[in-house]
Amino acid sequence: MSTSQNHEGRPGRRAVVVAAGAASVAAALTACTNQGESGGSDVVEPAAGDGTDTRGTALARTADIPEGGGKVFADQGVVVTQPRAGEFKAFSSNCTHQSCAVSRVADGAIHCPCHGSMFDASTGAVAHGPATRPLPARKITVTGDSITLAP
C-alpha cells in the first residue's frame, strides 16, 4: 500500500494536506502577478535573453516616456520619468520599503503596488509611506531621442 493512500484506496490525510497547501501557494502566486492589469501601468517586462549586462544600451526613445509620467523597465531595475518636457530622470524600480517592484508612474508619482508607497517622479523622494527612504537615482544618458542606462 502506498503511503499517500489509505487502506480503502483513497488519498490519505497527508496527501490531501500537501495538495491543499500546493493549491493555496499557486493561488497566492497567481493573485500577486500583474498579468491582465490595466489602468496605465507602464511596466516593461524582461525580454527572454541570456542574462548579460545590458547597461549602456538604449532603454527607450524619448517619445516613449510621457511628459508628467514615466515607464518602468523591470528587466533593467529602473524607472524613467519625464517630470517636465525634455527633463528625464531615472530611479531604481525597487521600493525602499520591502524591495517590491514599482508598477507605474501616474499623477507625478511612482507607485508601489505592494503597500501603497509613492515616490515623487521628479526627485524619487517619498511622497507617501510606508517607505521612509527615497528611491535611489540611476544614471541615464539622453542622446538625441535615445535614453540609455549608463554603465
UniProtKB/TrEMBL annotation:
The keyword Membrane does not apply. Pfam families: Rieske (PF00355). Residues 57-149 form the Rieske domain. The keyword Amino-acid biosynthesis does not apply. Residues 35-55 are annotated as: Disordered. CDD domains: Rieske. Its cofactor is [2Fe-2S] cluster. InterPro entries: Rieske_2Fe-2S, Rieske_2Fe-2S_sf, Rieske_Fe-S_prot, Rieske_Fe-S_prot_C. It comes from the Bacteria. Gene3D superfamilies: Rieske [2Fe-2S] iron-sulphur domain (2.102.10.10). Keywords: 2Fe-2S, Disulfide bond, Iron, Iron-sulfur, Metal-binding. Iron-sulfur subunit of the cytochrome bc1 complex, an essential component of the respiratory electron transport chain required for ATP synthesis. The bc1 complex catalyzes the oxidation of menaquinol and the reduction of cytochrome c in the respiratory chain. The bc1 complex operates through a Q-cycle mechanism that couples electron transfer to generation of the proton gradient that drives ATP synthesis. This is Cytochrome bc1 complex Rieske iron-sulfur subunit. The lineage of its organism: Bacteria, Bacillati, Actinomycetota, Actinomycetes, Kitasatosporales.
